[in-house]
Write a structure and sequence with these properties.
By secondary structure, the protein is α+β, with helices and mostly antiparallel strands. It folds into two domains: about 220 residues, ApbE-like domains (T-fold, Roll); about 100 residues, Orthogonal Bundle (T-fold). The chain contains eight helices and 16 strands. The strands form four sheets. The protein has an eight-stranded antiparallel β-sheet with strand order 2-3-7-8-11-14-15-16. The protein has a three-stranded antiparallel β-sheet with strand order 1-9-10, with no helix packed on it. Strand 12 and strand 13 form a beta hairpin. Helix 1 packs antiparallel against helix 6. The protein is globular.
Amino acid sequence: MKSVKNVFGLYFFILLFLVACRQQEVIELSGHTMGTTYHIKIIRSMDQNLTADRLQPSVDSLLEEINQQMSTYRPQSEISQFNRWPDNQPFKVSSEFMEVVKKALDIYRMTDGAFDITVAPLVDLWGFGKRGLRFQPPDSLKIRKVLSRVGSQYLKICGDSALCKSIPDLQIDLSAIAKGYGVDAVAGLLKAKGFRNFLVEIGGEVYARGLCGSRPWRIGVDQPIYGAPFGQQVEAVLELKDCAVATSGDYRNYFEYKGKIYSHEIDPRSGWPVANGLASVTVIAPDCMTGDALATAIMVMGVYQGLRLINELKDMEGLIILRNEKGSFKKIESDSLRKYLKVEY
């Protein structure tokens, strides 16, 4: 969705594949989508004759459709047309677009507004959106002015297939949930084709089904070091089967001004980047769209509210990494995260 050259669009690209499957029958696909890359590994059984060349067009076509629905960088995408929609008349959207918006509104309510897709004007104001970079904070008066047109309470679902906005300047940005949805969509495609063991990754968001050989899939979580290359230091290794994982952090998308870091993780309630000590949040969930959105929400909520939320939710686990003033890190785990952690690697 966002240009690969523009790092301020890459929210969650911090999960790395650590160990390749030792199976001989592995189909591997890769490409570009949503301003980042995707990688797919499929364990093919002997009775399946699908090859990478035959699968790639189906995957690329699906991801192209999602981009055309949800990319703010495409002037004629559904989301761009909605953002230009000038009044409160119903705007018809695709069923896929509606599914993502409904999930976003559910998590908005669940997190008391910490996750809010109407944050688009703030993202642009802070230089993390399609309008280009900035290298110092905006004026506080401008922030307050933009905040007047942020809030999912102004976004309504009208019937089965339309959205309405109660203020004409309302705009939405699905960057914090769309990659997760894309992962789920590709996973659904592979399930429909009969594959039982595979891993789908888009920009660091992952869904793992079945096994990689005789063991769960292994995924590494980067240590959240500002500006460090991907995979330089792994903080934890997760073993996954039939679940998704998504990570949000403050250390890939940011600018520094007068010695202070301003991250792309913006609190939609205050209009300012979060400064609560959280360096990254990793969420394990049944589906990647939910994990994607919750990782962002918990970055905004902070450690105590975020940990309480993740422990209350069924089939969810979380790893929160805090940064202290001296640059070291502290890991905080949800109640049952240990069953996913590989201690030695």
